[in-house]
Write a structure and sequence with these properties.
By secondary structure, the protein is an alpha+beta fold. It contains 20 helices and 17 strands. The protein has helices spanning 9-23, 27-30, 174-187, 203-213, 234-239, 256-259, 275-287, 313-318, 324-330, 347-362, 370-373, 376-383, 390-403, 409-421, 467-476, 481-488, 492-501, 513-523, 527-534, 538-547, and strands at 40-47, 57-59, 68-71, 99-104, 108-112, 120-122, 125-126, 130-134, 142-146, 150-157, 193-196, 221-225, 264-268, 289-290, 299-300, 304-309, 333-336. Strands 2-1-10-9-6-7 form a 6-stranded antiparallel sheet.
């Protein structure tokens, strides 16, 4: 197979210029709507009765030249990223009569129903005759649902991705492809790397990928959370100490730099480094020498440093909380990780990946009916959620979905219905749009007026709930989650996150057979009594007893 990594931006720009000439592309490109020169509008499958089709996609250059694209059961043909057979949507629930997508002057796309009689929705609104939206809306993506069976994302696609190795990262979006290229570009260099991005974007995963793709892959990658190092112990934790160096030093301690000698040292949460440790860290990075606490001499170390933060380091420097020279030393090469809302076409792929992983961990026997966990309405809501916790938050949702499999069918349906209705999964406000000249963008074709949506209930933010309040509410309501969430004024999803982050709450999954049997002897056979005695949820206790093969009476 030919190596496509030689497709530079200039080459792809030349390819696109040729396309422009061949299709007489003028007005849409003049509007300047494409975020990068090589990008084209395209479709990616978010949901399909055959879940193996999720992620299949097709580029639609016609939309940049004013031509129409027919969309139906029979056309266009889509393929998995990286090649493979091209196939139409081919679902019997879809009509053979197409709807049309068309580019028009001013940098817009119009969706026209025509003779199509099936149900069509665009971003949750039913399509009557036609609907228009500006091309810059493709940065967030537009969700198109056909006959309540297939969901597609209209968004920007790179028609000539480099097809970098996976590197342990799940996804095929242009943003993730860019990230993989940057990892490979810097991996074999010896410069320090600074990873920047929102919480939950996978900075440690990227650091491990850089390490594995580099020259030090055979040595250790030592991970350090700088926020967890007390100021008083910073020197000994980072550089080690000799026996008797200070009170309590009853043995020689090897520091993180020594452990990583010859390999990679990943300094996570670098923005939370105690001020006392910043000067020590800067000196070690500049001299490549360390001095264990209490030692007379220095020791030279060969360490490749990768740091990561979700903090605004420039603001921290302005406020005197972070040293500018340390930032300059760490940022030999800087990589910015995309937020999940910037790679919406990856959301469905990630959900399937995490769901399969969680089902495996729970020991659920194959084959799995994954469609039961991810019905189309839920998938659409999850794709359009803003994901402030990014991939980490998405993984937690996948875990919740997997856990529902242990419930009785009626309970599972009720839990799933509650999950679909939770206001904690709102439609995203999207990422900031680029400025588009109003002179060059014609007003969109108006859509029919729609009745206003039912107003959603407002909830408290999880940060407003103290651990003591959480524990009191759980005990008052016998560890039943629905009444506890109502009493606290939070959504069910927020309650799960609060419980997960509370150090004072045991998880039912941590209980052993002996402890459960002891509680049964004191509280009786009823699950509600045992759960109250152990201070865990009934549902969690039922799952744990099932995993342990224990007898249940209700």
């Amino acid at each position: 197979m030919a190596d496509r990594s030689s497709n530079t931006a200039a080459e792809r720009g030349s390819w696109r210029a040729q396309l422009v000439t061949e299709t007489h592309e003028t007005t849409l490109l003049d509007a300047g709507a494409a975020p990068h020169a090589a990008m084209l509008p395209g479709l990616t499958i978010l949901h399909h009765p055959d879940l193996r089709r999720i992620g299949d996609r097709v580029a639609l250059p016609e939309l940049l030249s004013g031509r129409a694209v027919a969309l139906s059961r029979l056309e266009p043909e889509l393929a998995a990223p990286g090649g493979g057979s091209r196939r139409p949507l081919a679902d019997s629930h879809l009509s053979r009569t197409p709807i049309e997508l068309r580019g028009v002057e001013g940098g817009q796309i119009i969706v026209e129903r025509g003779a199509h009689r099936g149900r069509v929705a665009i971003d949750g609104r039913p399509l009557e005759e036609h609907h228009g939206f500006p091309l810059d809306q493709l940065e967030d993506g537009v969700v198109l649902v056909l006959s309540s069976y297939v969901a597609l994302l209209i968004h920007w696609l790179d028609p000539a991705p480099t097809r970098s190795p996976g590197l342990g990262l799940v996804g095929e979006s242009p943003e993730l492809d860019r990230l993989r290229r940057e990892i490979l570009r810097v991996a074999r260099l010896e410069v320090p790397v600074l990873l920047r991005g929102e919480t939950g974007t996978g900075k440690e995963l990227v650091a491990q990928a850089i390490h594995r793709a580099g020259k030090r892959a055979e040595r250790d990658c030592v991970v350090v959370n700088m926020a967890e190092i007390p100021s008083s112990l910073a020197a000994s934790e980072l550089f080690g100490s000799v026996k008797g160096a200070f009170t309590g030093a009853d043995r020689t301690q090897v520091g993180f730099f020594q452990r990583a000698d010859g390999g990679t040292l990943f300094l996570d949460e670098i923005g939370e480094t105690p001020p006392e440790a910043q000067a020590l860290l800067l000196r070690a990075l500049e001299s490549h020498e360390i001095q264990p606490v209490g030692a007379r001499g220095v020791r030279r170390v060969d360490v490749r440093v990768i740091a990561a933060t979700d903090a605004d380091l420039e603001a921290a420097i302005a406020e005197g909380r972070f040293r500018a020279p340390l930032l300059h030393r760490l940022a030999g090469y800087e990589i910015r990780l995309p937020a999940l809302r910037q790679r919406r076409d990856d959301t469905a792929r990630l959900l399937l990946h995490f769901l399969e992983h969680e089902l495996t961990v729970l020991g659920v026997p194959r084959p799995w009916d994954l469609a039961r966990f991810l019905p189309l309405p839920l998938m659409v809501e999850l794709v359009t959620f803003s994901w402030p916790g990014n991939v980490r938050q998405l993984r937690n949702v996948a875990r919740r979905l997997a856990i529902l499999d242990a419930e009785e069918p009626s309970r599972r349906r009720a839990e799933l219905a509650a999950l679909l209705a939770e206001p904690s999964i709102p439609r995203s406000q999207g990422t900031p749009k680029r400025e588009v000249s109003t002179a060059s963008v014609a007003p969109p074709v108006p859509s029919p007026a729609l009745p206003s949506r039912r107003r959603r209930r407002s909830y408290r933010k999880p940060a407003e709930v103290a651990e003591s309040e959480l524990l009191a509410a759980l005990r008052e309501h016998d560890w039943r989650l629905k009444p506890t969430a109502e009493a606290l004024g939070v959504s069910r999803a927020s309650l799960y996150l609060l419980i997960e982050g509370c150090s004072g709450i045991r998880k039912a999954a941590d209980l052993g057979r002996e402890e459960i049997e002891a509680a049964r002897s004191r509280a009786g056979d009823r699950i509600v009594g045992i759960a109250r005695h152990l201070e865990v949820s009934e549902q969690g206790l039922k799952r744990r007893m099932t995993q342990l093969g224990m007898r249940r009476t209700d």
